[in-house]
Amino acid sequence: MAQKDNFTKKNIITVSLRLIKEKGYDQVTLNEICSEAGISKHTFYYYFESKDDILLDFLEIPRDVSMSRLSSILAAENSLEQFWQLIEPNIDFFIENGFEIARRIIIFNLTKNLGTFDTSKFNSDLITAQLAILKKAQLAGEIRNTSDVRELMHVNFVIIMGIVSKWCMTK
Fold first, then answer.
1. What are the C-alpha distances in Å from 12 to residues 41, 62, 105?
2. CA–CA distance from 89 to each of 65, 111, 167, 169 (Å)?
3. pLDDT tens digits, one per residue of 78-125
4. Torsion over CA of 108, 114, 117 and 122, rounded to 10 degrees?
5. Taking Cα atoms as reference points, which of 104, 62, 105 lies closest to residue 87?
6. Nearest to 134, CA basis, from 145, 123, 122, 121
7. Distance (Å, rounded) from C-alpha 98 to C-alpha 17?
8. Is the pTM of this model over 0.70?
9. What's the Cα-to-Cα distance from 121 to each of 15, 89, 114, rounded to whole Å?
């Protein structure tokens, strides 16, 4: 049963994102999403509270590191390359899904103040790995800035989000 639930939820996300990329967020209706996904509104509301809620789930996708990606990261020649390989999927994720979705995610977080972009709340294996790699880079002299690694990661995140925001504004 859980496998079917997972498939249905992923299907709703996939269909929603495709429609948003094609038409724009505001032009996509819940009825269209349900029709294209082959589900009822009741099924939609089983998985999501609203169309906005899809975006929150969507943000979790690039935070997983596959085993194949992990072996590539570990084989990288230095800590900075390892760090880049950990953050690159997030950048690729925004590029692949288009500025309309990135724009909507930023707007949603600004208006709802959900803290999605609050790096002090980030707690995951991926964040722990990023922090460890940054510390290793400091110790190896690859990063000469001696600031706390969490602060360095926060600055990196702010820079990336600034670039994504600029991209969204200029299309």
1. 11, 17, 17
2. 9, 26, 17, 22
3. 988 888 887 887 788 778 888 888 888 888 777 876 666 666 666 677
4. -150
5. 62
6. 145
7. 10
8. no
9. 30, 20, 11
